[in-house]
Amino acid sequence: MQNFRSAVIALAGLAFVGLAAAFAVSLTIVIGALLTVSLGARMLMGRTKRAPVYAKAKRREDLRVWNDGKGTIIDL
């Protein structure tokens, strides 16, 4: 009876280790699949290039200066 009980406990322990290993492997596969999908989506999305914005300097004639009695105002 003692040998039978030891064999059952050993089989239960092996089953538990097997289930834990299967869970770890399946979790690793799921996380790997999610990372692969997100990496592929980021790769296929493609970022648009920003168009350069060209600034144009104002001519000297556009500079307006006047005095309103409280101080000089310079409008650039």
End-to-end C-alpha gap: 101 Å
Largest sheet: 2 strands, antiparallel
Structural classification: mainly alpha
Number of helices: 1
What pattern of helices and strands is seen along the backbone?
A: HEE
Low-confidence stretches: none
Put the structure in a nutshell.
This protein is mostly helical. It contains one helix and two strands; from the N terminus they run αββ. The protein has one helix at residues 2-45; strands at residues 64-67, 72-75.
Word description of this protein:
This protein is mainly alpha-helical. The protein has a domain at 1-49. 58% of the residues lie in helices and 11% in strands. Strands 1-2 form a two-stranded antiparallel sheet. Strand 1 and strand 2 (72-75) form a beta hairpin. The longest helix has 44 residues, at 2-45. It starts with a helix and ends with a strand. The model has no long low-confidence stretch (mean pLDDT 85). Keywords: Membrane, Transmembrane, Transmembrane helix. The chain crosses the membrane at residues 6-39.
Notable traits:
rod-shaped; 11% strand; 76 residues; mainly alpha; single chain; membrane; two-stranded antiparallel sheet; 2 strands; transmembrane; transmembrane helix
